[in-house]
Amino acid sequence: MTPKDQNGLFLTFEGIDGSGKSTQCKRLAEALHARGLDTVLTREPGGSAGAEEIRSLVLEGDPDRWSAETELLLFTAARRDHLERLIAPSVADGKVVICDRYADSTRMYQGLSRGDLRATVDQLHALMIGREPDLTILLDMDPAIGLSRAKGRKGHEERFEDMGLELQQKMRAGFLALAEEFSDRFVVINGDQPPENVAQAVLAATLKALAQIDP
Ligand code: TYD
After folding, report:
1. Cβ atoms within 10 A of the Cβ of 137, count?
2. Sequence ranges of the domains in the chain
3. Which CATH class is domain 3-211?
4. Which ligand 1 atom is at minimum distance from the Cα of 100?
């Protein structure tokens, strides 16, 4: 589905842990609401009742709780439920869906973190998901800053943050490479600047994508 075949817009945020995605997702949702746009703010893993249950399975507990392959299946199961029940119906209804992480996170975290599983990730995506976002905003950021921010938040969901700085550096490079691979839908924004400036750049990119659907 391209923006021209649909009424709504499916927009995702990506970036390393602590890159400010959650804050910027909320700000964008508020800015779009204020413009009278019907907006759905959601996240992955999660976003539907079943997917939220899977979220606690994958984000809590020991870093070695799941093999890389099992973890990939769990993230994909969660995404399929989220896509069927929330994302696809909302976009078909003409809404703007803002999702905090989506399949590009799987390409990076499950595809790169423990050996190279990228080909398996892509095959499973083609088989079970088959939907890319219309626009992906990558908040790019120095991993040392990102990690100290992410670690500052106390909680139970730390499996990936516990994997350390080296992994975050690999992720950053990986996300930038993805932005080139999918250059038709990625916009890269420097996340290491005042939140207000980031928010302005995010809104500008979103309004441009919306103008392509509804000129
Ligand atoms: P979350 O607390 O939402 O982190 P953040 O605020 O940084 O987005 O936790 C999501 C974690 O799950 C994050 O460490 C990335 C990881 N993740 C994957 O490993 N694979 C995936 O497909 C997704 C969507 C997330």
Report:
1. 27
2. 3-211
3. alpha beta
4. 8
Provide the H-helix boundaries in the chain: 21-34, 49-59, 68-82, 88-92, 103-112, 118-128, 143-152, 165-181, 195-213
The helix/strand/coil state of 188 is strand
Dig out the tokens for 171 from the structure: 């992720």
Q: Are 21 and 13 in contact (CB under 8 A)?
A: yes
First to last CA, the chain: 18
From first to last of its 215 residues, the chain has per-residue pLDDT tens of 444 456 899 999 999 988 899 999 999 999 999 999 999 999 999 999 999 999 999 999 888 899 999 999 999 999 999 999 999 999 999 999 999 999 999 999 999 888 789 999 999 999 999 999 999 999 999 888 876 766 666 565 555 656 678 888 889 999 999 999 999 999 999 999 999 999 999 999 999 999 988 65
Ligand 1, pocket residues at CB < 6 Å: 17, 21-22, 44-45, 59, 75, 100-101, 105-106, 109-110, 157, 160-161
Quote the CA–CA distance of 61 and 158 in Å, as a whole number: 8
DSSP β-bridge partners for residue 2: none
DSSP state of 117: -
pTM of the entire structure? 0.92
